[in-house]
Amino acid sequence: MIRVENVSKQLNKTRALKNVSLEVNKGDIISLIGPSGSGKSTLLRCIHGLEHVDTGKIYMDNEWMNPDDEKKFRTQRNRMGFVFQHFNLFPNMSVLQNCKLAQVEVLNKTDEEAEKIALEYLDKVGLLEKKDAYPNNLSGGQKQRVAIAGILAIEPDIIIFDESTSMLDPQGKASINAQIRKLHEEKNITILSITHDMEEVAQSENVIVLENGEIAMQGTPMDIFKQEDKLAKMQLDIPFALKISKELKKRGIFKENVCRLDEVVEKLCRLK
Ligand code: ADP
pTM of the entire structure? Predict the structure, then answer.
């Protein structure tokens, strides 16, 4: 679905991306991790076309996303939703208006259609009762949920999260993640997300680790977490569930390790 080929990007004096190549297939759930400053945001911004690459090419469904071909580039970009780390809400618009905006502007939906869908997604993120509130009267986590609802409402093929759930409390995070997962299951939506939450990483299908603008590791969560020493050098931890699993394996209770909490629980229940 997305192919990044030998992409490099310089930001002032920093070589933010150095010859990065990767492939994202339709329906993938990919976590992008790496130390701060390793190029994660720059990579996602290049994929979304917010930044133009210096060298290399990005393809969507085997078609080059050429910024000079403006009309086609816009259509390609419109298939992606980008949820920013610092939610981009308009303070002078109500929650509902904020959620309608992208649908009207990007997809040319009528006001009525946009409202119906916006209400549906506000309900899904648990903020229907705040539809007439203004962003300044919401908590950080609530603003983030509005931003996420607004992007989900355009029903993109690919959704890109730039540490978008980092501000949420554990419960808020879990409910958003469950919602995103449901959308993935219902619509085979492709998900690319930067996260520092290793429990979230454990739930993805594939992980890409960036270091100094280059891909340092790539594989399933377990492939990555097995390389604990390499991760530690990048100040990256392993999930808590895997730590428990390792302890249980050391004591001969588990034969092999798992990295998700639900897998640990499942294995423990089967021991009875
Ligand atoms: P990450 O998302 O992994 O924290 P970024 O993609 O934000 O990393 O940044 C990659 C590198 O590019 C870093 O060294 C950062 O300091 C630099 N950088 C990011 N944005 C800019 C900018 N607007 N101008 C100059 N350098 C930048």
Answer: 0.90
